[in-house]
């Protein structure tokens, strides 16, 4: 029988507060050899060299490398200057299924190996979503090569914000696909009909990205991204 793991608060263990430099950790006693109770849990000291603690010392455990949003919704608190904090932006699958030509767009997203969500470390957001680039010259050159390969005819130029955009291309590829209008979808299909790189006749992920970028650019994708960020802000404000 397959085990199903569900994350949540465990009675007794949940009395321990969270700290990244935890004094203790917990383990499961499957057979009950230590606790006398099968499938029970117990605490052990986690810091090397420590075999005991002084009376009155608070016992912390580490809840895991979680961002503040996850900590807030799961446990009801946030951590100041959380080194593991991130922003998650995603496009709901349920909303995708309600789009016109949803099946075609979902297939294109799958073929591009694109992602429906992205996790952005908050350290990337110190200067906003289009902050000053901290990438190396080599990284910038790779980005330009990556982007220039998207242009079918070479007419659509590399965007000026390329080195500043913190959102991964795997996520933006999804948004470009979702934001396509019906006439743009037809144009993309027409371009892809001209090629057949693989043996089964299906276009490659690079060819699909190239066709969509040539037809659509980023206008629709960035507009959709702004809408997703507004929804995200509303969710966070409501949750707090």
From TrEMBL:
GO terms for molecular function: protein-lysine N-methyltransferase activity. PANTHER family: SET DOMAIN-CONTAINING PROTEIN (PTHR13271:SF55), UNCHARACTERIZED PUTATIVE METHYLTRANSFERASE (PTHR13271). This is SET domain-containing protein. It comes from Aegilops tauschii subsp. strangulata.
